[in-house]
From TrEMBL:
Name of the molecule in the record: ParB-like protein
Organism of provenance: Mesorhizobium humile
CDD domains cross-referenced by the UniProt entry: ParB_N_Srx_like
InterPro entries assigned: ParB/Sulfiredoxin_sf, ParBc_2, UCP029669
Amino acid sequence: MIDPREPIVTPVPVEDLRPTQITVGMREVGLKRQMIRAQDAKKKTGAFLGRHMVPVVLGPKNRNYVTDHHHLARALLEEGVKDVLVTVISDLSALDKDAFLFVLDNRGWMHPFDENGRRRDYAAIPKTIGELVDDPYRSMAGELRRQGGYAKDTTPFSEFIWADFLRRRIDRNAVAKNFDKAMKDALALARSKDADYLPGWCGPTSD
């Protein structure tokens, strides 16, 4: 008998996954690619993928829409990994396309914002993982969390909220010119009171 608390996982071709966002941080994708390459045997790669299942929502035509781990999916695609394990968190395959996208949006399973932080129409979301666009501020947000700038949080797309915060305060040319220096500025900003409304903020307290 199957334990209902255990996720039901299915192998799905990576190239068939549908994104629910427009961008990724390509530096983040690069780090994921290094993790995948470190799995130097098929057995280890299988164990790695078993620990990194991709959550999806089933949409019209039974397509798999990714709700998290877009960076991992893009890295797998670029590393030539054919299949990935997915776990279905909701089956909305009975809905038509418009209703399906509306539900994704209102449940926080979609982030239709472009690399400039502007909200776009649903049609702007790529149809494949390979078409995701680079947002350097999303890379900064990921690195900021690794450096202890903020804590991991369950808020949907919390890294993108931090990316938007950084986008408004650090010049894009400065990020491109010297990422490490820009990260020092980002750490200082993350610890300031200006950031206290953000998910996972762990700046200074009065006690």
